[in-house]
Amino acid sequence: MRKEVAKRLIDLTNCIEFLEETGNLVHVRSEVDLKYELAGLAKQFEGKKCVLFEKVKGRKYPVFIGMLWNRDIVGSVFGIPKEKIPFVIGEAIHSWKKDKDAFASPILKRGPANEIIHKDIDLYKLPVPIHALKDGGPYFDSSVIIAENPETGYINTSIHRMMIIQKDRLTFLIDPGRHLGTYLDIMEKRNKPLQVTINNGIGLVPWLVSTIPQQGDGKNSIANHIVKQPINFIETQTSNLPAYADAQFIIEAEILPKVRDDEGPFAEVTGYYSLRGRRWVMRVKAITHRKNPIFHTLLSGQEVWNAVGFTAEAKIFVTVKKKVSQLRAVYLSPGGCGFYEAVVQVEKNRKGVGMEAIKETFNAFESLQRVVAVDMDVNLYDPIEVNWAINTRLNPDTNLLIMKNQKGHILNPMVRINPNGRGGTVTKIGIDATAPYPRTKKFERVSFKEVDLRNYQIQE
Fold first, then answer.
1. In b/e form, how buried is each residue of 229-240, taking b as 16+ CB within 10 angstroms?
2. How far apart are CA 90 and CA 312, in angstroms?
3. 166 exposed, middle or buried (CB, 10 Å; 0-12, 13-18, 19+)?
4. Is the bond leading into 438 cis (omega within 30 degrees of zero)?
C-alpha cells in the first residue's frame, strides 16, 4: 500500500486533509449547539460529503462527522473502488490468521494523542453531542474501546455507545455476545474493575477493524495487515493498557464491578429509540488529547450501516467461500440497517447453490434476519434489480427458507427479548432468487447493444 494512502487510513487528521483536497468536505463556520442542532444540520448532509463543524457553542474543539456515510468517498480514501474494500479487509483477516504477530504495534511513550494531559476531569468540556430529540444525554457513539482479556492478556477493540452522566462517569450498553461483556463477567466475579481506554478520532482502518464481528483477542492487528505496517500505540497515564498514538482524544477509565446506572434512550441504528435501562458504569481517570484535536462523532444511520457492511461483508465472504466456492460477492444493504439483510451473489453451476450460500451466510453472521441469493447477472447493489429477481425467479414452494426461534440482534424491535434480558429470538427468512439450473430460454434476460455516449452529439 502506498505511504500516502496508509497515512490517511491511520490518522484522522490526515484523512480530513485528504477529504478537503478532493472536495469531499463541507465546512460549517456558523456556531452550532451540541444539543440537537449539530445532528440536525448533519442530517441534511447524510450520505453526501463529510462535515466539519468549526465552531461549537461553549466548547473549544471542532467536530467531524460523516466519515463512513458515503461508500464512494470511503473508496477514495482507500484509493480503490468501493466494491473492493470488503475484499481488502477479507485478505487482511486471512493474513492475520496466518501470522498474528506480523506488523506488531509498538507502544510509544509519547505521541500526538497525549500532547495535552488534563489533570481535572470534566467530560462536559468535550464537544459531545446530544443527537436525537429523545436521546438521554450526550453520547460518545464512535469511540473505540480498548480492553484486555483478563485470562489471556491480549487486547480487543470494539465500539459501544456511552452516555455522560457525571463529569467523570459514563454509562454504556454492551450487546449480548460481545467480548467486552465476557471480560466484564470475569472481572465482576473477581470484584475488580476492568481498565479500558476510550479512543476518539482514530484512523479509518483501525476504526473499521474494531467493528469486525467475532474475531476475538488481538483483532486490532488486522488493521496493521490492511496497511501492511505497524499502527502505533502509546502508554497511558493510569494503567498498563495502551491507546492509539494517533487518536484525537484518549479517555482512560475503569468499568466498576457490580455498579449500574440509567442509560438511554438513544437513537439507534434501526431508526428507533433504544429503551432506557440499568447498565454498566465507567469512572474516568484521565483525559489526554492532541494540541489541536477534532472530536469525531456519527449519526446512527448510514455510517453504521456502511461500517458494519464493509467489515461483515468481508467476514461473511471469507467464511462462506470456504464452503460454497461459487460465492462471488456479499452486500449488506442499507435497508437492512447493515445488520439484518444480506444479498449474496453466486455463480450457479448446479442445483442448490443458492440455498447453500443462504444457510452458510446465516451461520457466518448471526444478526442477519433475511438473506437473498442472486445470480451473476443481477446487480446486488441495486434494490430494484434484487427485487426484480425475487419477483421473477423465486419459487416460494421450494426456494423459501423459514427458520423460527433463531438468535436475534437485541436492538431490532422485532426481536423477542429473553426473560433474563440477555439476548432474544426472531424468525429468519432465506430467499433463493436465482434462476433454475440449467437455465431455460424463458429466463434469458433482455440485452441491448453497448454504446459510448461520447461518440454522439447530444443536447440536454
1. bebbbbbbeebe
2. 9
3. middle
4. yes
**CATH at residue 217:** 2.30.110.10
Q: How many helices (H) and strands (E) does the chain have?
A: 12, 24
* Assigned domain for 313 exists: no
> Which cell goes with 348?
450457479
115 and 176 both lie in a single domain: yes
In whole angstroms, give the CA distance from residue 346 to residue 357. Answer: 8
The C-alpha cell of 282 is what?
A: 465507567
Q: What is the CATH number of the domain that holds 414?
A: 3.40.1670.10
Residues 234 and 153: their CA atoms lie apart, in Å, by 17
Which among 242, 251, 3 is positioned nearest to 108, based on CA atoms?
242
For the chain, 460 residues long, the average pLDDT of each consecutive 10-residue run is 91 97 97 96 94 97 95 94 90 91 93 93 97 96 95 92 97 85 94 97 95 83 95 96 97 96 91 91 97 95 84 89 96 86 96 97 93 97 95 96 89 81 87 95 92 91
Structural domain count, the chain: 2
Cα(260)–Cα(253) distance, rounded to whole angstroms? 15
Do 154 and 43 share a domain, yes or no? yes
Same domain, 238 and 370: no
Rg (CA), the chain: 23
Domain of 180 in residue numbering reads as 3-302
Are residues 107 and 30 located together in one domain of the fold? yes
Helix (H, G, I), strand (E, B) or coil at 407: strand
Contact 218, 283 (CB under 8 A): no
- Count of CB atoms situated within 10 Å of the CB of 286: 18
Three cell numbers at 300?
446512527
Question: What are the backbone angles phi and psi of residue 213, rounded to the nearest 5°?
Answer: -80, 145
Q: List C-alpha distances in Å: 186 to 150, 239, 252.
A: 7, 19, 20
**Exposure string (b/e) for 214-226, b if CB count within 10 Å is 16 or more?**
ebebbbbbbbbbb
